């Protein structure tokens, strides 16, 4: 499909496939002649996504290749030479999507598995978003039908001259009373509709931060939105309240930055600090699938005339939607930094303190200490 020119019919088919269909792999009858049930190639859960990724890897990888160490292809090996199946531009695009290395033309088994699982998660989140949107639209449709029905009845009564002026005056007075009672409710519904269909700051499955708390969007309704906190506690927010709050959406954010702060003693030699910066920068630039190149190691400030506060500013090749993956990558960097500090003998030292004793406490006893006491006979 061309994103710049999508017909309404194709979009309707796409929405139907996402909402009611399942992710499926290519028919394996192409690879061998054994007949298999269609359900074996359909992905309905994360476990089936991992199984499908393993099956794809085994079918596509060269079975008896000897990469690097001369060993035969095992589970830790890679898919070699994707140009056998795709054009060069498509292969490079696939490599970039799967976080593979376009230089070595390889995609590891773990990378393929993570990509298939993430594709399944995104498709499931999109299906839930479409279902919630369809439900909200249906409820709105029922509300509009009721209002239109009441309006048509009143117009018919006026046209048929069944409703007199006294009757219309009575109806209008009752409408004023109903508006006085339910006016705030109507305002809340209108604000919720504007927030849900016009502002639309999130979809189902997005990681959002509201009032300093990170939550996952679980369900979207006309009046409320259900969130899941980090401990899987459900929190329900009225949409009219959310429309007045700043909402941070991690899923819609571009590749996000990060910072690792640490302290170094002020007496640390400048050459050690220079070597430390170079080693940290080299490690980050080697991990091209995790970080962008050219990180910044800066001296931020002095603390107490004995410590220098430093920081590593770098940028992930992902946003923070998958918070677990973000912390795993950060943990690997911190572990490498600890190793560098130990190799360079950069340790934490306290500032020396001068202690001056001006007075001594008076003795509470005049008895002299003795090395031993005679036992009573």
TrEMBL record:
<dbReference type="InterPro" id="IPR023408">
    <property type="entry name" value="MscS_beta-dom_sf"/>
</dbReference>
<dbReference type="InterPro" id="IPR010920">
    <property type="entry name" value="LSM_dom_sf"/>
</dbReference>
<dbReference type="InterPro" id="IPR006685">
    <property type="entry name" value="MscS_channel_2nd"/>
</dbReference>
<feature type="transmembrane region" description="Helical">
    <location>
        <begin position="175"/>
        <end position="198"/>
    </location>
</feature>
<keyword id="KW-0812">Transmembrane</keyword>
<comment type="similarity">
    <text>Belongs to the MscS (TC 1.A.23) family.</text>
</comment>
<protein>
    <recommendedName>
        <fullName>Mechanosensitive ion channel MscS domain-containing protein</fullName>
    </recommendedName>
</protein>
<dbReference type="Pfam" id="PF00924">
    <property type="entry name" value="MS_channel_2nd"/>
</dbReference>
<dbReference type="GO" id="GO:0050982">
    <property type="term" value="P:detection of mechanical stimulus"/>
</dbReference>
<keyword id="KW-0813">Transport</keyword>
<feature type="transmembrane region" description="Helical">
    <location>
        <begin position="144"/>
        <end position="163"/>
    </location>
</feature>
<feature type="domain" description="Mechanosensitive ion channel MscS">
    <location>
        <begin position="194"/>
        <end position="251"/>
    </location>
</feature>
<dbReference type="GO" id="GO:0005886">
    <property type="term" value="C:plasma membrane"/>
</dbReference>
<keyword id="KW-0407">Ion channel</keyword>
<dbReference type="InterPro" id="IPR016688">
    <property type="entry name" value="MscS-like_plants/fungi"/>
</dbReference>
<keyword id="KW-0406">Ion transport</keyword>
<dbReference type="GO" id="GO:0008381">
    <property type="term" value="F:mechanosensitive monoatomic ion channel activity"/>
</dbReference>
<keyword id="KW-1133">Transmembrane helix</keyword>
<keyword id="KW-0472">Membrane</keyword>
């Amino acid at each position: 499909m061309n994103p710049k020119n999508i017909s309404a019919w194709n979009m309707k088919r796409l929405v139907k496939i996402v909402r009611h269909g399942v992710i499926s792999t290519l028919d394996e009858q192409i690879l061998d002649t054994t007949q298999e049930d269609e359900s074996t190639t359909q992905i309905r859960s994360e476990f089936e996504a991992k199984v499908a990724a393993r099956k794809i890897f085994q079918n596509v990888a060269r079975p008896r290749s000897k990469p690097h160490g001369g060993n035969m292809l095992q589970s830790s090996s890679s898919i070699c030479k994707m140009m056998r199946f795709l054009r060069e531009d498509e292969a490079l695009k696939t490599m970039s999507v799967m976080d593979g290395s376009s230089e070595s033309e390889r995609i590891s088994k773990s990378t393929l598995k993570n990509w298939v699982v993430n594709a399944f998660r995104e498709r499931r989140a999109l299906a839930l978003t479409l279902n919630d949107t369809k439900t909200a639209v249906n409820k709105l449709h029922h509300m509009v039908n009721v209002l239109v029905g009441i309006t048509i009845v009143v117009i018919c009564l006026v046209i048929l001259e069944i409703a007199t002026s006294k009757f219309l005056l009575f109806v209008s007075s009752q409408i004023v009373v109903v508006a006085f009672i339910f006016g705030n409710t109507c305002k809340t519904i209108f604000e919720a509709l504007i927030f849900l269909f016009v502002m639309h700051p999130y979809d189902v499955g997005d990681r959002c931060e509201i009032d300093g708390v990170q939550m996952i969007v679980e369900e979207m309704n006309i009046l409320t939105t259900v969130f899941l906190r980090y401990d899987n506690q459900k929190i329900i927010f009225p949409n009219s309240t959310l429309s007045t709050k700043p909402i941070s959406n991690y899923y819609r954010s571009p590749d996000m930055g990060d910072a690792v702060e640490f302290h170094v003693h002020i007496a640390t030699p400048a050459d050690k600090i220079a070597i430390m910066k170079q080693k940290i920068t080299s490690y980050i630039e080697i991990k091209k699938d995790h970080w962008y190149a050219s990180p910044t190691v800066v001296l931020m400030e002095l603390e107490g005339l004995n410590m220098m506060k430093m920081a590593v500013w770098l940028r992930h090749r992902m946003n923070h939607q998958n918070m677990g993956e973000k912390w795993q990558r950060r943990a690997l960097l911190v572990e490498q930094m600890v190793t560098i500090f130990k190799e360079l003998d950069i340790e934490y030292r306290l500032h020396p303190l001068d202690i001056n004793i001006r007075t001594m406490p008076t003795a509470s006893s005049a008895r002299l200490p003795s090395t031993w006491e005679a036992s009573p006979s």
